[in-house]
């Protein structure tokens, strides 16, 4: 239920906007082009099947997992919705 000057569908619009932003960010991260035969981080060869499955891949599985874990710690969206999580 919205209150004040917000419309009744304000929460739904906010959720939709958050989802749209997340989808756009995920699409921007998708690789393009031929990709790399060797990992840019550690220099190990990237398997052919990985390069076929993910066009434009630049990192091996281990390095990509490490980078994803770091990115998750810096998430831009408040999914909990509590005041404590907004005060970070």
Automatic annotation (TrEMBL):
<feature type="zinc finger region" description="dksA C4-type">
    <location>
        <begin position="39"/>
        <end position="63"/>
    </location>
</feature>
<dbReference type="GO" id="GO:1900378">
    <property type="term" value="P:positive regulation of secondary metabolite biosynthetic process"/>
</dbReference>
<dbReference type="Pfam" id="PF01258">
    <property type="entry name" value="zf-dskA_traR"/>
</dbReference>
<dbReference type="GO" id="GO:0008270">
    <property type="term" value="F:zinc ion binding"/>
</dbReference>
<keyword id="KW-0862">Zinc</keyword>
<protein>
    <submittedName>
        <fullName>TraR/DksA family transcriptional regulator</fullName>
    </submittedName>
</protein>
<feature type="domain" description="Zinc finger DksA/TraR C4-type">
    <location>
        <begin position="36"/>
        <end position="65"/>
    </location>
</feature>
<keyword id="KW-0479">Metal-binding</keyword>
<keyword id="KW-0863">Zinc-finger</keyword>
<dbReference type="InterPro" id="IPR000962">
    <property type="entry name" value="Znf_DskA_TraR"/>
</dbReference>
């Amino acid at each position: 239920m919205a209150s004040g000057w917000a419309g009744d569908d304000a929460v739904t619009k906010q959720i939709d906007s958050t989802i749209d932003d997340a989808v756009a960010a995920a699409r921007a991260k998708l690789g393009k082009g031929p990709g790399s035969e060797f990992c840019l981080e550690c220099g190990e060869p990237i398997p052919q099947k990985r390069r076929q499955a993910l066009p434009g891949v630049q990192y091996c599985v281990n390095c990509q997992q490490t980078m994803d874990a770091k990115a998750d710690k810096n998430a831009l969206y408040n999914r909990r919705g509590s005041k404590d999580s907004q005060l970070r």
